[in-house]
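Complex record, two chains
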Amino acid sequence: MQQSMDVIDDDQIQIEDIEIRLLLEAIYQLYGYDFRAYSRASMRRRVMHRLTMSGFPSVMQMTERVLRDRQFFVTLLNDLTVNVTEMYRDPEFYRAFREEVIPVLKTFPFIKIWHAGCSTGEEIYSMAILLEEEGLYDRAMLYATDIDKNVLVAAKKGIYPIDAFKQYTENYRRAGGRKSLSEYATARYDSVIMEQRLKRNIVFADHDLATDQVFGEMHVILCRNVLIYFDRPLQERVIRLFDDSLDLGGFLCLGTKESLRFSGNEDAFDVINKSLRIFRKRQIPHNA
Amino acid sequence: MRRAVKAVVMGASWGGLNAFSTILAALPARFPAAVLLVQHQHASADNRLAWLLSRYSALPVRAPEDKEEILPGHVYVAPPGYHMLVNEDDTVALSTYRPVHFSRPSIDELFFSAGHAYGAALVGVLLTGANDDGSDGLDYIRRRGGHTLVQSPQSSEAPVMPEAAIIKGAAREVLDLERIGPYLADYLVGL
């Protein structure tokens, strides 16, 4: 029961924080990915996680490697962008979307949906299937964006491990799915590939919420469990960006622990479903 | 004697509901620090745990939203499926980063971030559990100058987690479950 005496004092913490800021600056300068306004606590944990895994004595030395080794950067990028997702994640959300949003969308001649932070695509295919089952797919256009070009390649392919897919079938059922999820994918060895027809109205594009601009005239924006990684000023920017990108009466869907409360733009939206965070942009501009 | 403690962070796995309710029941309404706790649970669980624990606590208990302000005398329960971290500006940071020690929420995620943010103004408490989540984080809290308590293995429904922390040398005090709540009340509020 030997207690190590290696105290970590505030000076050391301050130096680490500076090193992390320099790392994020280096990434931005060299690779163009902007993590500088990401939530500090989570970002720090992820950097320190990679530091422990890679065995560098300090963040500074890891930064040196990031600057010289693109492959190492890609590994780190995968840590920094949280690519944890699943089909019909939060099934109750998709059920609520089906019951409370779809009836309104059915009155639109054309539907544009932006899924911001789509990661490896599981949720965009979830939405595509839902739209098909509701007879809306043919008049819908789905824009799936992410900051990370590597995950977009995976999203486009739509190939998922069969074990994970088996779990998704339960989500699908709880989300109010009308058929069997296996009807939308073909099994191949230990993977499944999503049906080609689901992809025909999906556009995949890279977009950085921290730096890029309005993605215009959307009827629905889905951005679930992305804002939690941003600091509050960046959250405010992104909510404004969504407000500007939505048509009047368009829907905004956030993660179940994300709130408009701290965004300074709460008045622009009506609450459609409080616990599942479905909001609707007011028909009459709030500042008119 | 009252100490300048801003927060108490606690973690438990197997047997945690009983341990948390026992401890929270012993904290007075004028408890001056925020309490943040992680109980390992399945992602599909709802916020029932916060509701359950609120029945034992004189303090308000809630499962926080992201960026929610951390207030003294309030209890924050990590929502199922999310890691709960502490930002330096006294707000909650939630994350869906991959599970740590097969757990999300993970005790280490809370402990490391709180140790970073609060340094010596923190008390870490590691309770009953059947894996070794939390011991690294508790040791980090100790190294940052915070106070660390571990539930005695003999009073734990599952002793693996407390034992891991004790072997690591992360514990400044080892206490039986019934002693932890009164100890915290005494340590922070005084008699």
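Note: Residues 21 and 53 of chain B are 6 Å apart (CA to CA).
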